[in-house]
UniProtKB/TrEMBL annotation:
Pfam families in UniProt: Glyco_transf_29 (PF00777)
Gene Ontology molecular function, alphabetical: sialyltransferase activity
Protein name: Glycosyltransferase family 29 protein
Any single Gene Ontology cellular-component annotation: membrane
Topology term for the membrane: Single-pass membrane protein
Top-rank taxon: Bacteria
UniProt keyword list: Glycoprotein, Glycosyltransferase, Membrane, Transferase, Transmembrane, Transmembrane helix
InterPro entries in the record: Glyco_trans_29, GT29-like_sf
Subcellular location: Endomembrane system; Membrane
Principal localisation: membrane
Length: 205
């Protein structure tokens, strides 16, 4: 696909040409088979911990959006996958140097050409986003979508760091819970249910 064709598909909301740029979901999930995965949220409280070494010891380290990393001690250094729902400034792209980018937002107009043409690019299906939105009663966060997606894989474990469902706000901005469209209480209850049901999932508080 040329850049002009990409821009036209994005403008006209033509999903099929955009999806053709993506690896398919089974191939993506196969890349997690047998892996110990660390999914890093952006809660401010994570910066007070010493989880960096444990994060970097995971087989796959997945970060979210602009992924602030105040210190290796708390956040580690690696970024294998980056789950995006916003445009990524060039400086953050260079800093994170992700091996794979996953576009998780239903807002395809935000998807840029550089991201769409990056190695291993993945576009999360609109039907999957809608199903989780209906389950939660509100638009899901990027973190929630990644939890749901990762648990579809035959992975060994999924450990969540930096997830406190906005109790300590976010390192990536100054907005409060009332200023974003997500239902953090519903997401917290949903994750609590998953923790009871799936022994592979662990939440580091």
């Amino acid at each position: 696909m040329t850049r002009l064709a990409f821009l036209a598909a994005r403008l006209m909301r033509r999903e099929s040409p955009l999806a053709a740029l993506s690896v398919d979901q089974p191939a993506l999930l196969a890349d997690l088979a047998g892996c110990h995965v660390a999914l890093i949220g952006n809660a401010r409280a994570l910066a007070q911990g010493d989880h960096g070494a444990a994060i970097d010891a995971a087989d796959r380290v997945i970060r979210i959006n602009r992924a602030p990393m105040p210190a290796p001690r708390s956040h580690g250094r690696r970024t294998d996958w980056l789950a995006l729902a916003t445009r990524l400034p060039d400086a953050d792209r260079a800093r994170l140097a992700p091996g794979r980018i996953l576009w998780m937002s239903p807002k395809r107009k935000r998807l840029d050409w550089t991201t769409a043409r990056s190695p291993g690019f993945y576009l999360h299906p609109l039907d999957d986003i809608t199903a989780l939105r209906d389950r939660l009663g509100a638009p899901p966060t990027t973190g929630a979508m990644m939890i749901e997606l990762c648990l579809r894989a035959d992975l060994a474990s999924l450990t969540l760091y930096g997830f406190d469902f906005f109790a300590s706000l976010s390192l990536s901005g100054g907005r409060g819970a009332a200023q974003v469209p997500h239902d953090f209480a519903a997401e917290g209850d949903w994750v609590a249910d998953l923790l009871r049901q799936d022994a592979r999932l662990r939440l580091i508080r």
